[in-house]
Amino acid sequence: MEQRLVLVAMATVVVAALLPMNNSASITKRDADCPGIVSREEWGAKPPKERENITQLPVPFVILHHTYIPSFCNSSDKCKADMRSMQKMHQDVRGWFDIGYSFCVGGTGLVYEGRGWNVVGAHAPRYNNRSVGICFIGDFMEALPTEEMMDAAKELIKCGIERGSIASNYTLLGHRQVRDTLCPGDMFYENITTWRHYKNIHDVQPYHPPPTNATQPSTTTSPPLPTNATQPSTTTSPPLPTNATQLSTATSSTSTTQ
């Protein structure tokens, strides 16, 4: 009987040694999905044209946006439709790989998966590969997002830290701090300045629109003609009619930067 008890005790020690230690809840949560996120499949996303992963994790920045358009969504169906609308515009009009944001927050307090964790976004040039971009659906120039929306974003950031996607000492910025824009809206931006981890920096660089493919007239001076060359007529050409097509100097302001 005594020998059997010794064998049972030894077996217990061996099993305990083989089992992983459970003294850190953060290890368990690190690879877990954050709760309450509406997946791409659930809102009807199209596949991305391409996908580029962030190579250096965790990222040091979280950048907050508002959509302005689409307007505030106060139902699951409208928020899902807004997500599909934004993805279509970003892919088909702007030529991006996917919807630009990492995540979006709807008026009901639900978070919608955009590009998701650890994927390079298209929401803040020069920061896309080192930030998480969270967009609040609506126009927040003269109004604030709901408390549910702001709480959901804060919980998302917390989960991002726990899963190793966002640095624990991250810097929080509004979009206007890194690009010449009114985003995320005047009233919301003022509120953001009170959030933990907000940093008052200004890193806006001038925007240079992409070149057009129109042929530009030459401004160089032609070399002198040889003395025996036929001289051009010195008569004055008649003026162009008022409906003549003029060379356009307009430049598209649509950025294709990913």
Can you describe this structure?
The protein starts with a helix and ends in a 66-residue tail after the last helix. It is built from 6 helices and 6 strands. The chain has a 6-stranded mixed beta sheet. The radius of gyration is 28 Å and the shape is globular. Strand 3 and strand 4 form a beta hairpin. The C terminus is likely disordered. It has 258 residues and is of the alpha/beta class.
Global outline:
globular
Q: Kindly state the percentage of residues in helix.
A: 25-40%
Q: Describe the sheet with the most strands.
A: 6 strands, mixed
Radius of gyration: 28 Å
Secondary structure tally, helices: 6
Compute the separation of the termini in Å: 72 Å
Q: Give the spatial strand order of the biggest sheet.
A: 1-4-3-5-2-6
Number of strands: 6
Structural class given helices, strands, pairing? alpha/beta
- What are the segments in which pLDDT stays under 50 over at least 5 consecutive residues? 5-32, 214-257
User: Which strand-content bin applies to the residues?
Assistant: 5-15%
| Quaternary assembly | single chain
The succession of helices and strands, N to C, reads: HHEHEHEEEHEH
Q: What is the arithmetic mean of pLDDT?
A: 78
Provide the fold topology:
Elements: H1 2-18, H2 25-30, E1 37-38, H3 40-43, E2 59-66, H4 76-93, E3 103-105, E4 111-113, E5 131-136, H5 147-162, E6 166-174, H6 186-192
Parallel strand pairs: 1-4, 2-5, 2-6, 3-5
Antiparallel strand pairs: 3-4
